[in-house]
C-alpha cells in the first residue's frame, strides 16, 4: 500500500488487499470486502423490494394517521397494540446475525497463489478447498458486472481444463484483478524470474469518487495492454447487419412467413400461436448475440490472445498460447454477399462466463471480413502467421480445387457431395491440419497438430461401394467437429498414416503448457 | 473384399473368442425385452396383424446375433512405437490412432457375464470424447498387463493437453 491507497467505502481492507503483485506471493489472502454484498446483494434488494411492496398500503395508512384495520395484513398487525418495538428489535436481531454470517464467511474465504497452484478455501461449516494447477490453465477471465463496477470490484475466473473445474475469485478490487491476472499468467508461463509487472497507471492519489468515475468511463481495452495494430474490433453496424443476415434469423423468418400464409389461407388464426414460440426464440437469440458482441475486441498480448466485450457488464478473457484446440472459420449463407465470416474455437475448459452468442466463450470473432479473419487466425495460431501459410489459409477459406496443396474428393464423390466435391478436401501445413468443407455453407476447420487427441478413419457400406472413406480428427469437446467425409480411400489411408506419425512428433515437441520457459 | 479399408503392415491383436458369449447374452436380453414390449399392442388389441412387429424384431435380432462372431473377430488393437491403434466393425469399419501421451486414464470394467468368463473391458480415455477406444473381452490378466503397459508408456511421453 504505497503509492496508491484509495480508501474504499466498505471497511478499510486488511493489509492483504494491496498492489496487484503482492497477491501472488504464496500466502493466504482475502477477497474484496464488498464480496458478500455483491454476491448476495441482488437477493437482498429483491427481498427488501418485496417487503416494501407488501407494506406499501400500510405505510400510507400509517403516514396518513390511520390505523391499519386489515387483520390479515402483517404490518397492520405489528403496528397495532404496542408490538412495534418488539418487531423492530427482531428485525435488528436478524440483520445483525446476517451481517455476522456474511462477515465470517468473508473472513474464511481465502485464496493463495504459489508457483505451482492457485488455491481457494471457503465455507463456514462445510469447508471446501479447490486447487488449480498453473500449467493447466486454459484462460483467465475478468468479469466486471455493472454493480460491481460501481464499487470498483471485478470477478476473476481461472479456467482449468475439465468440466466445472474452474477456480473463481469473486470479488477482487478492479486493479487487483488486472495485476493478479498478469501475475498468474507470468507464473504459469514458466519464466523463472518474477517480472516486476507494476505498470500501474495510478497517477497519484485520487478521491474515491474520481477513481470510480474514471474507471467507469475507461475504455474496455486499455491502450497499454496491447499494441494497437494487433487489435481487431467489431463495429456495431456490422454486428446488426450480421444478425439480420444470419441463418438463424433466416430460418425464423421462413417459419414466420409459413405460419402467416397458413393462417391467411385457412382463415384461422391458430397458426399465429404456433409461430409465437419461434418469435420469442428469435428475440432471445438477437438480444444474446447483440449484447455479448458489443464493443468486441481481440488483441494480442505477450501472454496470449485477449478477447473483450460488453457494454454495461464488461468481460475479458486471456487465452494463453496453445490453449486453442481447433479453429473454425465459417460463413452463414447470406453473409456471402458482404463477405463476412465467423470464427469459433474448441477449448478444453468450460468458462461460466458466457461469450458471444451465449456460448461458452467459443465464438472468438462474431463477424469480420476476410482480412480481419486472417489477422485473428494469425493471433490464435501464431505458427500460421507466415505469409505462405496465410496464402494457403486464404485458399482454404474461399476457394476450390487443388491449388495451395489441397487434396480434394475424387469426382465419383459427387454423389455424396453434390456441390462441394471440388472444395471438400484437406491440406497440411507445418504444425496444422486444414479441413475445407461445404460449397454453400463454407467452412474451414484448422486443427493445430500438437492439440490432436486422436485420429479416426471410418467406412460404411455406401462409402465402400464408392471407394471412399471418412476422416475424423478428434479434439476436445466443443462446437466444432473436425471431420472430412467422401475422401478417396487410398488418400484417406495415406492421411491416417502420415498424420498419426506427425501428430506424435508434434505432441512430443510441444512446450506451450509453459509457454515462456525457453526464454529466460 | 479389395475395397475394404486395410492398414498395411499391421498384425492385429484380437480379443478373446469367449467375448462372443458376452456379446450374444447382452443381445439376447435386449431381444427378449424388445419382443415383450412390442407384443403388448397385439395382446391388448387382439389384432393379429400387430404380431408382425415382434416378429420383425425377432428376425432382426437373429440376424444381428448371427453376425456377432464376425464382429468380435473384427475388433483388434496394436501397440505401435508411439501410438495405440484400434479397429472394429465389419459393415461400418472404424480405425483410431491415439498417441500414448494423450492418455488421460485407463479404465477396466467387468459385467456379470464377463466376470463369469474371466474377461474384462478396457477403456482408453483421452481429452476428446469422440476418441472412443474401448477394447472389450480381454482376459483379466491380459487387461491388467495392458493397462500397466499403457500407463508406463504414457508416463514416458507425458505432455499437456
Task: Provide key terms for this protein.
heterodimer, A: 520 residues, alpha+beta, 13 helices, 37% helix, disordered N terminus, B: 161 residues, PH-domain like
Description:
The complex is a heterodimer of chains A (520) and B (161). Chain A is an alpha+beta fold. Chain A is 37% helix and 23% strand. The N terminus of chain A is likely disordered. Among the domains of chain A are: 59 residues, no CATH class; 218 residues, no CATH class. Chain B folds into 2 domains: 51 residues; 81 residues, PH-domain like (Roll). The model of chain B has no long low-confidence stretch (mean pLDDT 89). The chains are: A alpha+beta (520), B alpha+beta (161).
Do you know the CATH topology of the largest domain in chain B? PH-domain like
Oligomer: heterodimer
The parts of chain B where pLDDT drops under 50 for at least 5 residues are none
Q: Give start-end ranges of low-pLDDT stretches of chain A.
A: 1-20, 195-204, 355-359
How many alpha or pi helices of chain B?
5
What general form of chain B does the structure show?
elongated
Q: Please provide the count of β strands of chain A.
A: 21
Query: Shape of chain A from CA axes?
Result: globular
CATH class of the largest domain in chain B: Mainly Beta
Most extensive chain-chain interface? A-B, 40 and 29 residues
Structural Rg of chain B: 20 Å
Structural class per helix/strand content of chain A? alpha+beta
- In percent, how helical is the residue content of chain B? 40-55%
Mean pLDDT of chain B, to the nearest integer, reads 89
Structural class of chain B, by secondary structure, is alpha+beta
Q: Which percent range describes the beta-strand content of chain A? A: 15-25%
Amino acid at each position: 500500500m504505497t503509492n496508491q491507497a484509495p480508501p474504499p467505502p466498505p471497511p478499510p481492507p486488511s493489509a492483504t488487499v494491496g498492489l496487484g503483485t503482492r497477491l501472488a506471493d504464496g500466502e493466504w489472502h482475502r477477497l474484496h470486502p464488498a464480496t458478500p454484498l455483491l454476491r448476495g446483494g441482488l437477493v437482498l434488494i429483491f427481498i427488501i423490494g418485496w417487503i416494501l411492496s407488501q407494506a406499501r398500503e400500510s405505510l400510507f395508512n400509517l403516514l396518513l394517521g390511520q390505523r391499519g384495520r386489515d387483520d390479515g395484513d402483517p404490518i397492520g398487525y405489528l403496528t397495532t397494540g404496542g408490538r412495534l418495538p418488539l418487531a423492530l428489535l427482531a428485525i435488528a436481531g436478524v440483520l445483525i446475525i446476517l451481517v455476522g454470517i456474511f462477515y465470517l464467511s468473508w473472513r474464511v474465504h481465502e485464496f493463495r497463489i504459489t508457483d505451482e497452484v492457485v488455491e481457494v478455501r471457503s465455507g463456514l461449516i462445510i469447508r471446501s478447498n479447490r486447487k488449480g494447477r498453473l500449467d493447466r490453465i486454459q484462460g483467465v477471465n475478468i468479469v466486471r458486472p455493472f454493480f460491481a463496477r460501481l464499487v470498483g470490484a471485478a470477478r476473476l475466473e481461472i479456467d482449468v481444463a475439465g468440466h466445472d473445474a474452474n477456480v473463481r475469485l469473486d470479488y477482487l478490487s478492479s486493479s487487483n484483478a488486472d495485476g493478479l491476472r498478469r501475475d498468474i499468467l507470468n507464473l504459469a508461463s514458466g519464466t523463472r524470474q518474477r517480472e516486476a509487472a507494476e505498470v500501474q497507471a495510478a497517477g497519484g492519489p485520487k478521491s474515491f469518487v474520481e477513481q470510480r468515475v474514471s474507471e467507469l468511463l475507461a475504455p474496455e481495452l486499455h491502450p497499454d495492454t496491447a499494441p494497437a495494430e494487433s487489435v481487431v474490433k467489431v463495429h456495431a453496424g456490422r454486428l446488426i447487419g450480421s444478425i439480420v443476415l444470419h441463418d438463424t434469423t433466416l430460418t425464423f423468418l421462413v417459419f414466420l412467413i409459413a405460419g402467416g400464409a397458413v393462417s391467411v389461407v385457412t382463415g384461422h388464426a391458430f397458426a399465429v400461436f404456433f409461430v409465437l414460440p419461434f418469435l420469442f426464440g428469435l428475440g432471445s437469440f438477437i438480444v444474446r448475440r447483440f449484447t455479448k458482441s458489443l464493443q468486441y475486441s481481440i488483441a494480442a498480448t505477450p501472454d496470449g490472445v485477449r478477447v473483450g466485450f460488453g457494454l454495461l457488464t464488461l468481460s475479458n478473457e486471456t487465452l494463453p498460447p496453445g490453449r486453442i484446440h481447433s479453429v473454425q472459420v465459417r460463413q452463414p449463407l447470406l453473409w456471402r454477399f458482404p463477405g463476412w465470416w465467423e470464427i469459433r474455437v474448441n477449448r478444453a475448459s468450460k468458462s461460466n462466463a458466457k461469450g458471444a452468442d451465449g456460448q461458452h466463450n467459443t465464438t472468438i470473432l462474431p463477424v469480420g471480413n476476410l482480412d480481419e479473419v486472417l489477422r485473428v487466425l494469425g493471433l490464435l495460431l501464431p505458427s500460421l502467421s507466415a505469409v505462405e501459410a496465410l496464402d494457403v489459409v486464404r485458399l482454404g477459406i474461399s476457394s476450390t480445387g487443388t491449388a495451395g496443396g489441397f487434396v480434394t474428393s475424387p469426382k465419383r464423390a459427387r454423389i455424396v457431395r453434390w456441390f462441394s466435391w471440388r472444395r471438400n478436401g484437406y491440406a497440411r501445413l507445418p504444425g496444422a491440419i486444414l479441413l475445407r468443407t461445404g460449397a454453400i455453407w463454407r467452412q474451414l476447420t484448422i486443427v493445430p497438430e500438437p492439440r490432436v487427441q486422436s485420429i479416426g478413419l471410418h467406412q460404411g457400406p455406401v462409402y465402400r461401394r464408392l471407394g471412399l472413406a471418412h476422416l475424423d480428427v478428434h479434439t476436445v469437446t466443443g462446437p466444432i467437429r473436425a471431420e472430412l467425409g467422401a475422401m478417396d480411400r487410398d488418400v484417406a489411408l495415406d492421411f491416417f498414416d502420415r498424420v498419426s506419425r506427425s501428430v506424435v512428433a508434434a505432441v512430443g515437441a510441444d512446450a506451450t503448457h509453459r509457454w515462456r520457459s525457453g526464454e529466460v | 473384399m479389395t475395397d475394404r479399408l486395410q492398414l498395411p503392415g499391421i498384425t492385429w491383436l484380437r480379443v478373446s473368442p469367449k467375448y462372443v458369449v458376452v456379446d450374444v447374452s447382452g443381445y439376447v436380453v435386449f431381444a427378449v425385452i424388445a419382443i415383450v414390449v412390442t407384443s403388448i399392442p397385439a395382446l391388448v388389441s387382439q389384432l393379429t396383424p400387430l404380431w408382425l412387429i415382434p416378429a420383425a424384431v425377432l428376425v432382426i435380432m437373429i440376424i444381428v446375433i448371427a453376425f456377432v462372431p464376425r464382429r468380435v473377430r473384427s475388433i483388434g488393437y496394436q501397440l505401435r512405437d508411439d501410438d495405440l491403434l484400434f479397429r472394429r466393425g465389419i459393415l461400418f469399419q472404424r480405425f483410431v490412432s491415439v498417441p500414448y501421451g494423450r492418455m488421460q486414464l485407463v479404465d477396466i470394467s467387468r459385467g456379470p457375464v464377463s466376470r463369469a468368463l474371466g474377461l474384462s473391458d478396457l477403456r482408453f480415455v483421452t481429452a476428446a470424447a469422440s476418441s472412443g477406444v474401448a477394447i472389450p473381452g480381454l482376459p483379466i490378466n491380459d487387461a491388467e498387463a495392458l493397462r500397466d503397459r499403457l500407463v508406463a508408456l504414457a508416463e514416458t511421453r507425458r505432455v499437456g493437453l
